[in-house]
Amino acid sequence: MAGEDVWVKLPSIIIVEILSYLSLADRLNATSACRRWRNCLFHPILWRSIHFKVKNDSRSRSKHLANMCGRFVRNVTVEFNSQICENVKECLRILDMLADNANLERLALRPSSCQVMQVNWLSTETEETTDLFSDSLEAIIKNARRLKHLSVGCLEDLGDHANVLLPLLAEHQTTTLETLHMATVKEDPDSYGLIEMPVSDLHSLCHLQVLGIDYDYVTTELLDGFSTCNRVKKLERLIIHVHGIEHGHEKIANDTWRRLVVTNPTVEVTLNLIHSADGATGLLDILRPALPLTHLRMFFCQLINVAAINFIARHMATHLRSVQIIDAMLNMTPNSYYAVFDNLSDEDPFVMLAWKCSRLTHFTLIGYEMNDDDVVAIARLRGRQLHTLEVPLCCISSVEPESDPHTVGLEYGRVGNDFNAEISKSVGREWQPISNVQLHLAVKDPHADAEMAYLETLLQDQAF
Question: Do 374 and 350 touch, CB atoms closer than 8 A?
């Protein structure tokens, strides 16, 4: 074949098969050789999954890709800048095209913010932008033959449309939907409205394995619906976002969690507390010994509930795998949770957590003081299995002798010469604390937008 001009005469099925083995860059280079190869570039089998990036510098590329593949692609992630009108419009246009795609199986939104900028298509049009998003999602739910994954991207206003979207999912996707993310991020966690969540529609999704939901709607009725034995598939992961906690919110009994675990033995629970002082203060009202807590995240909650950390160490040691706590500092002065200790001989709660939780692999504590010996202790206790150990240098305290031999003082950000080496030896890789430059602006400035410090983590929960 190399000696003859027969490459252009290859059957299309062979050309497509060749292209399927190439990376996207090599595929584009190969199809620039001739028109026949170029015509095979957008064969449906080559575009089962697309990650649209709707940003200023890539909007035209996303538009072209949507025009060519929007009606047959199966797995779609739409990443867009939700604070720029033109990008929001293009995202809506992509969703409208997907509404005609009967083969769509997975859809995940990845906005740059939990809020979407209001846009008007016509000067006389006043329909809310989130209503347009909801309309597109409704059409997608109705027309897709086997939708398996749906994520609203933590968008607060879209979460408020759950009372419309859930009945449609129960009607059209009850035998296919496996993953549903309706959890949100609240712009004002201290004041927001609640909707009537149609719990029975959630229960009718008998193949549902992963559910993301706000704590406002976590009730005994909801959990008991997943505890029945007639479900086709078991619940594997429950992701709960905690914001404000309404006075009188039902406290889930331990027996309810026990029933859930008995019927769903592999279920894992992720708790995300987001700007939730209520959640941090009342964490012991949320936690129960039978709750299979796997991941605990606290983002800008203004305090650490030491009693709750100790409770987790005692009752959830066989489940817990990660702890991530991030908070802002005033004038770069780390916050302290030591003040709640009964006496100076009390062990650091996170050291006890690392000792008892044998599956702990990720630990992040940003914005709070931690003694250098305690950081070393955590590294030694979990060793090489500790894949992530994130503590800022400016938050690490060390004891320094004062001029008076009977007193001692604390210094921040100054550790001994062998501190990094000791931790590196324990975790089996080179380790350094987080520098000031690496800290997110919201950690250093309480007035900065904190959303960018955690939104990517929350959206990663919702990826497929």
Answer: yes
